Amino acid sequence: MTLVIAQKAIAAAQAEAKKNNWNVVITIVDSGGHVVMLHRMDNVQLGSVDIATGKATTALKMRRPTKVMQDGLAAGGEGLRMLTFYPGIVLVDGGVLVVEGGKIIGAVGVSGVTSAQDGQIA
Question: Roughly what angle, to the nearest 10 degrees, separates helices 66-75 and 47-62?
Answer without folding.
Answer: 90
